[in-house]
Write a structure and sequence with these properties.
This protein has 150 residues and is of the alpha+beta class. The protein has four helices and five strands; from the N terminus they run ααααβββββ. Strands 1-4-5-3-2 form a five-stranded mixed sheet, with no helix packed on it. β4 and β5 form a beta hairpin.
Length: 150
């Protein structure tokens, strides 16, 4: 404990950086709590390092409380809006070039199963396709391949 009180500024900055690393790397910016706390700890340590604040536990506690609350108040809505911006573009993968001949009839119900890469995929199509039709995968969903006739 004596080491921490003798090196309060450095300890707070290290804890702040650790909190930021955990928030970004482990939690993927999903909670923001450690982000606000990390900013607060680092800022308090920096102010103590430049002698703008007293090196005491009481000062560290109050400073962190106020800075964390201010960060939460100022940054919550912009960060929440940033999280809600989701890019809806589809990602092309090795399925994009996959084409094959149907063994069974395919329709929108997805009752036909196709074995590819050791996985059983449901096949769906916007228009009914008879067995023997040469098809290409146009869209992928979890466990489902959407196909169309070539």
């Amino acid at each position: 404990m004596e080491f921490i009180t003798n090196n309060m500024a450095q300890t707070l900055m290290v804890l702040g950086v650790l909190a930021l690393i955990v928030e970004v790397a482990v939690l993927g910016m999903s909670t923001f709590i450690l982000l606000f706390l990390g900013i607060s700890l680092f800022a308090t340590g920096l102010m103590m390092n430049f002698a703008l604040l007293d090196d005491s536990l009481t000062t560290a506690l109050w400073s962190n409380t106020l800075i964390t609350a201010a960060c939460a108040f100022l940054l919550w809505k912009p960060l929440k809006r940033m999280q809600e911006n989701v890019d809806a573009k589809t990602v092309n993968s090795d399925f994009a070039e996959l084409d094959f001949v149907l063994d069974d009839d395919v329709d929108e119900r997805g009752l036909t199963i196709y074995l590819y890469s050791g996985i059983s995929w449901k096949l769906k199509s916007k228009q009914p396709l008879p067995a023997g039709t040469h098809v290409r995968v146009t869209k992928k969903e979890v466990g489902v391949m959407w196909v169309e006739a070539i």
